[in-house]
């Protein structure tokens, strides 16, 4: 009898069914005292019926799914021809992907190819509001794509260029948004110098204040490395969130700010009022994205960018060459913070209210996902990553398919990210340097270096 | 005392209860090729780390005097400031920026002592461009000097051991130092590469006018290069002198024989 259970086929089917049951319980509705089994018998079955004949309980659906899946795997494994064919088609698909990737790489490697790519993106950006004319689409594109891309290219400077894992990036975004409210007099505290500034002046205020916070936070914390820095930035993000939520006298607390006026410019003959329509906000954000892209791209290929790479790769060696790591790290922090501060102004002045829940930890992680997905350290990658992921999010909000449940959004994004990390660990359009670093770690160069560093003096370094 | 590059006076470095350097006093003259030898764990690398600001000794003083006669106290200074004063170094385990090209590796050294320049870098002003051109030229010259011109666009990780050593030397020289500290430059190289390296180190001193401070286990290389030696054992200086004097010094022979089978007398044959 026991033999049967040890047979690998039975084991595999049993394993699959167990996984099916686990998925069933995990995806089912939460049970309570009166309905403890609702995890098994929950609502999913209501959507599923066999041609209207009968509605099976949820667990039967999952068990059937598991059985079918495991049988499929077995079939593929044991029918030799099918197995080989699957392998061949897999190889062909891999070849196709590789040749497409090579073509992209070739086009990217040529300067003219790169520039025409950028020009195409900018043109697309300019004409997008003519293609997508729906107001709610446009609003979401500004709020969920453009602002996110702005934040992602800022975080890319910190995480991608300087190699600092920042889990509290949302703090600078919050500072930008609350500065906008402060400057325009929408907070319980009086605005600076007692003057209600025009919202447009919030831009320099927000950028400078965010940078200042970046420096103030950076100087004590950027002495830490790796994981420790991540934890401290995480803490900083939470502190800002809690301040925003609880300091009723200053930030308005959990109810948020008063109404923030629309963006407007009154400079001599130049007068413009941003109103309810999203289009002008879109162009303003687009202009700043292009500006930040140009600035950050020349920064990447400058002495500062190379110093960041040096610090990222080997801080001790960099310092021995006269690079002061703290200075460059703080610089990265402040520059990243500036773009987040600006993004805060856009959000605050378009949504007209600022409320604390916007600035939760999940927001920071969301931005980090865009950077990782697109390719850390690659500006083009981060922009494309932001377009893909946030474009998907907006699409799902605007015209969701029938089967889509908004609560499942992060499940799909998570799956996408896992698949990405397996097949393209350096991101969608990786920066060439980062790609090299990743492949070197995989082929053992870094490990080799690490091993040789465990010399007699390493023990001493730990004690320091 | 007048034209000493390094003056190390009674330096003691402790880590908890472990005494890494014990009352070390030594000096290096300007233009000298000085070697520090000693068994494993004698404190050679600790001395290097103290000279470059990585470690902060608890007692004693380390003074570096630059070519203009300006004196710097090294103890308590950060490594990047010691580098700015004119001290460059290489590492025992080679520490290149392995994902960058040979050229970029050296260029980082060449431009590290320029100002902050983030704003200039963002706007690509004329001064920034002039800087770039100057650093590029300096980098090309140095790669030529160490013989890596043909490999300047190669990823550093794909260089062989001897080339990595030369790259590290070029990168350190790019900071325009007055003294170059070499931590076991010949480790892991083959005999032919060792000869090239000996030649290169001598040329660094003669043609670039950079003093050399050397830690090395390869006695052949040390004896061929060094004009003077210090011998460290258990964190203390046990002998100093010319190669001939050191070879004949009974305390040195004992330290080496006591520490390992491959003694100094044997190796220097």
**Average pLDDT reading of chain B:** 87
Strand content of chain B: 15-25%
- Please give the CATH architecture of the largest domain in chain B: 3-Layer(aba) Sandwich
Query: Briefly, what CATH class of the largest domain in chain A?
Result: Mainly Alpha
Strands across the major sheet of chain A, in which order?
Answer: 1-2
Count of strand segments of chain A: 2
CATH fold-level topology of the largest domain in chain A: ABC transporter involved in vitamin B12 uptake, BtuC
Helical residue percent of chain B? 40-55%
> Quaternary state, please?
heterodimer
Overall mean confidence score, pLDDT of chain A? 80
Strand composition percent of chain A: under 5%
Counting DSSP H or I runs of 4 or more residues, the number of helices of chain B is 11
What do we call the CATH topology of the largest domain in chain B? Rossmann fold
